[in-house]
Amino acid sequence: MDWQAIGLSLRLAACTTAVLLALGVPLAYWVAFSPRRWKFLVEAVVALPLVLPPTVLGFYILLAIGPHSPVGALYARLTGGMLPFSFQGLLLASVLYSLPFTVQPIAAAFSSVDRKLLEASWCLGASRAATFRRVVAPLSLPGIATGAILSFAHTMGEFGVVLMVGGNIAGVTRTVSISIYDQAQSLDYAGAAKTSLVLLAVSFLVLAFTYAMQRRFWSLWPMS
Amino acid sequence: MDELAADFHRTHPAVTLRPSYGSSGNFYAQIRNGAPFDVFLSADVVYPRRLAQEGVAKPESIFLYGLGRIVVWVPAGSAVDPAAALGSPRIRHIAIANPQHAPYGRGAEAALHTLGLYDAAKPKLVMGEDVAQTFSFVESGAADAGIVALSLALAPQAHGKGRYWEIPLDDYPRMEQGGMILKDSPGAQAFRAYLTSAGGRAILKKYGFYLPEGY
Question: Coil, helix or strand for B180?
Fold first, then answer.
């Protein structure tokens, strides 16, 4: 059993979710509330990773972060390292790949907050930030949780992008889906089935725990 | 394969060849589960032999069409000589196919051992799932050098994009490339006869697939 790969996938999924929440919440807020007429263009760009096959997306990410690209060159100047074949590279690729899974549920939740409540909050003198913190965010919590959970689950099962960007290095870029694929390719179908079962069980536990927490958290959230 | 298909069609107008490309291991699993192919050309004759053992096809339909040959490939802009690339300190990443299941990866790993460079190269190794993806790691510049199939280095798409050095055949175990007939038909028979004929062999050789004398 490749526990190292399972641990790596969990770490990658957790880091991806954290980065996506930090980026996705402001982006979703902008998508939901911006008066700009061209915001549909941004929404379309955010949804694009859903269209491209993961290996194709992965191939272009590899080109985009490789040492010959501006991004890769800048990264090399700042850190002396390289993005392809590194955990940081996988993290960047996963963030792009799962972006729609974070932004769309959160933007939908923000949009469905009753406009009257926002206006009431503003009339009572609360700033936009305070309104977000005390009205929008609490009412959108289920949507934010859904975005986070979907991103986590999507990253756990990510295969094509990792395959193209990672280089299959044990402990660095060999995630559990790659490990299962390797086992199946070397005709070790029993081993692949065992690892798949563990992936399913671990994912089920994480998701069940998160949904359970969400429910309790929800009822304890201070509404004042 | 395109040129081969065109030439085969010219000499056998009654038969239409429709190739599907993929890794040998994937096709092995698909064929075992009833994939509707007539002929299977594998990068490693182990897969056809295994299918024969399992009774999926007849062992006497297996034929060899080439030996896998590996080369060290560096992009055209690289300052490193491909013959010295594996041991060069200027190389940060060496791409090989996954030796766990890709025949060319096993060859690459064995050659590194024979050349006495394995321990130095090990921390630099990145693995593609097959030799084509390995090649894309190097072509994109993400890896500085790669051990890939001679057929890829000779492919028209790679022309002018890099330089290669062929690793001597004796430095790694022979990779016998073989095919087999899955569904017997005059068309399948004709294709096998064509691949082992002088005309078929000439085209295969142009792309790096050929058997040494005596095979």
Answer: strand
